[in-house]
Every structure is written in structure tokens, then in C-alpha cells.
Amino acid sequence: MGKKTEELLKEAISAYPFIKEIKEIERNETGHINDTFVVKAGDGRSYIMQRINDFVFKNPREVMENIIGVTQFLREVIVASGGDPERETLNVMLTETGDPLFTDSEGGAWRCFKLIEDIVCLEHASSTKQFRSCARSFGGFLRRLESYPAETLHETIPDFHNTPARLAALKRAVEADVMGRRSEAAAEIDFILSREDECGYFTTRLASGEIPLRVTHNDTKFNNILIDKASGEGVCIIDLDTIMPGSALYDFGDAIRSGANRAEEDERELSKVALNLELFEAYTRGYLEAAGEALTEAEIDALPWGAKIITLECGARFLTDHLEGDHYFKTSREGHNLDRARTQLALVADMEKNWDKMLAIVEKHGPGRL
Ligand code: ADP
Ligand code: GN1
Ligand code: MG
Asked: Is 50 exceeded by the pLDDT of residue 370?
């Protein structure tokens, strides 16, 4: 950690009076967006301190308003069902002045959560049983938020899963080519643009009402669920920065993209990238077990499209960031975002190869067959 960041982190910690003494600070490198630190206090309690990425989130206060609203709502639902609200949802800690945000001397926005203990956080699922359990957690999350007043949510990132808008951004980045990286990415650019017709899959169906708008998480990457170390069950869904009205297809899709890929998101050996169909089936079963009754038949039929379009969109986003000079996603090596884009596109290609099998799996576990 740079000296400046360490100073600013300490400044932020001092805004939280319950952290009287710092025993240990560790950086958590899992996410691509925020700066995350685990802070162990003198009394043995631990906290997550996060500096919100203000390049990505232009209005951190609105992000926190969404999170406070949603976590308070979830807390009541969890208590009513006999669950443990300290473990099953994020708990936002307030500063000495009762604020969910602390602004440091350089204008950086910080927040603090209770650390959830005895969990693991993984890049992709290690067993079908574990993935199915996590799918039930994500499906349950959608159900728990069914009656949340969607109109009170801020749109923290406009057009977050507007795939045609993502493609338009890619085209602008290709055109501008500010880093001179266009020619090495020509095959990837072609791959995406040749699927342009499919990119309106979500937007046209949401606009026509064929698929309903719901309160969705929108970033259901597998490392955004904390898994109980002992039981292997999904415990808590985290990273609530992009909770906004959206589609269940986004949430299903991103969990498959991230959790059911046989390879890492930044794997360079593309022959390792493939959709694990057993994991796809496990997730489909778990998601439908928990959310199936709330989903419409059109949504269930479209689940494979959720997986494919979200993966394609994510590939386009990584590629755009690569072309623009890596300002959005954190990178730790040269060409990191290009590598990530390549894995996403290889996964799309593998989904296309297995398309009939994906459809058959959803059909097998779809409405009336649970
Ligand atoms: P990003 O937006 O950068 O992905 P996240 O909010 O997902 O940030 O946090 C990054 C990582 O920090 C998570 O993947 C998880 O490993 C860990 N983490 C975040 N919140 C908690 C928490 N309350 N308890 C335990 N671990 C957490
Ligand atoms: C980011 O924040 P994190 O690492 O959980 C991104 C997602 C991408 C994902 C790709 C706010 O997720 O949309 O799908 O990286 N989050 C944001 O790994 O852009
Ligand atoms: Mg995250």
C-alpha cells in the first residue's frame, strides 16, 4: 500500500470511534473496483474499510443511500424469517457524526462494514453443491427484494447493463484508439461487432414488457457472495453498489459468466476456457428453486441468453477499457483487460457451441418441472 493511501486510510479509520486501536491492516485484492482493507481492531473485532471508486461511482452518497435502504429492508426480512442479520446482510457502520460516508482530506469517499467472519470468497465455484447453494442465495436475494420500492433507488451507474450502449462505447473507443491498441485487438472487436444484432436482447424485451424490470443486484460475480467456511453454504451477498432496477437475466447471467467458467477470468491459455455444464445445471436448479415462482415463463426461457449476453457485454467492457487505457477496471499486468476480454469471448463461443444443451437444461428444470 502506498504511503499516501495508508495515511488516508488511517484518517478514515479515525472517523469511526469504535475502532480504538488498530491491531492489523490487510489489503483485500479481490474486487476490480473499490480499494478494500480489512482492519482488525484492538478489541478483536474486524471491519471492512473501503474507499469508493469515484471514477466508477460519480455519486458515492447515492450509492450509500441505496445500500442503507436495501440493507435495512433485508435486515427486517431476515429477522422475520428467523435468520441472523449480522451475517446474512451487510451492516454499514456510521462515523462519529452518524454518517455512512467519510470524506478524507483529498476528497476520497470511505465507508465501513462489519467484517463477516468464518467465510470464504472464491473466484469460481468449486463444486456443484456449493454453486447450487449460492444460486439459492442469489435467487432468495431477488425474492427478498421483490417488494422493495424500486422507485427510491438511485441509478448509481446509468445504463449499466444497456448492452447496445456498451457496444456504442466500444465503437467510440475503437474509433479514437487513444492507446494505439486497436490492431492487436482486431479479432476481438470483430467477434463482438458480428454479434451486434443480439446485443439488444435485454433492452428490447424490457422495453416491450416481455421481461419485467425488478430490483436486481447487477453484479452477481461469484466473489460477491460470502460462503460459510464450515458448511459451504452461501451466507451473504455483498457488493451492493449497483443495486438498481434491472433484469433477473443479468443476475443469472453474471453468476454463470463468473462462477461456471472452467478457467480464471484472466486466463491466458484460452483452451482452458469453457462453460462447465454441470455447474450451469446446478446454478439453474438452485436459482429456480429459490426464485422460480417469482420469475415469469419468458424470463426462465431466456436464462441462457442472460448468460451469453452478459458474458459478451463484459467482454466488450474489458476490451473498451483496454483500448481506452485501463481507467475503469484495476489491472496488475500489461494487457490484463485484453486477456480478460479474450476469456469472456472464448466463453461466449463455448456457450454458442453448447447452446442446445443450455436450452435443454433450462427446459428440464423450468416451470412445472421443479
Ligand atoms: P469491489 O466492488 O471492488 O468488488 P467488494 O465490495 O466486492 O468490492 O469487496 C471486495 C472484497 O472484499 C470481496 O470480494 C470480499 O472478499 C471482501 N469483503 C467485502 N465486504 C466484506 C464483508 N462485509 N465481510 C467480509 N469480507 C468482505
Ligand atoms: C466488476 O466490483 P467487482 O469486481 O465485483 C464490475 C462488474 C464486472 C466485473 C468483472 C461496478 O465487479 O460489472 O462484471 O468487475 N463492477 C462494476 O469481473 O463495474
Ligand atoms: Mg466485488
From this structure: no
